[in-house]
């Protein structure tokens, strides 16, 4: 059975795109056919985070009726399927709702898991994805401003008939919490699925146009992404992941060009 999740937050910059991409890759790594869709028509970050160089056809062209959805599906790590968005301020406002339904139906036929990366805020573009998935997952930072905005999204989702599947705390920085897990659960009235630590490896991976679960599988954030994937898909969590080994070419290049200090 296909499971569709919308990853939302309310406040911008909490880590929705990071969570969508890494969770998608962690599911794909476990053999789950997974498709992630960038529904943030204004920001279109997913392709950048995944290092996709050329995306001539995007969700934007598909919704405009200029291309079939299959032309807007690109392949990422572990066979993860990615539908990027176009840079357009028009967003869904002019999109034909029937076409959007067809696109989603087509995607659900191609995968076991569908993850939708929703835009921040409560514009039309942000509201549409809240109604489309089985469950909305709220990505929050452990700070009051993020929680207040997440609460607005929760209320909005429930008002329009959607369901909240839980919250994911991202960028939890050691002791540096405004609010702890229990307080977050009380304030939002939803359970916290897991906590992803603040992790410099996330930014290093982003700078290298790749994902932390690919580049640094042993890092704290990667472990959290795999735990969340395991809980969504119901497979056991691997405690000791294998670090990705450099390929032969990388090792050869290092051996040949190593400079002594
Ligand atoms: N756990 C983490 N540790 C360190 N840095 C992180 C973490 N999660 C996200 N980041 C960084 O925070 C920034 C914002 O993340 P991201 O783009 O995923 O947020 P977003 O909620 O999708 O933003 P927007 O609202 O603009 O779409 C990025 O630079 C990302 O690398």
Automatic annotation (TrEMBL):
Domain CobQ/CobB/MinD/ParA nucleotide binding: 6-208
UniProt keyword Nucleotide-binding, yes or no: yes
Keyword Nucleotide-binding: yes
Pfam families, alphabetized: CbiA
InterPro entries registered for this protein in UniProt: CobQ/CobB/MinD/ParA_Nub-bd_dom (IPR002586), MinD_archaea (IPR010224), MinD_FleN (IPR025501), P-loop_NTPase (IPR027417), ParA/MinD_ATPase (IPR050625)
Keywords: ATP-binding, Nucleotide-binding
PANTHER family to which the protein is assigned, alphabetical: ATPASE INVOLVED IN CHROMOSOME PARTITIONING, PARA_MIND FAMILY, SEPTUM SITE-DETERMINING PROTEIN MIND HOMOLOG, CHLOROPLASTIC-RELATED
UniProt name for this protein: AAA family ATPase
Species of origin: Methanoculleus nereidis
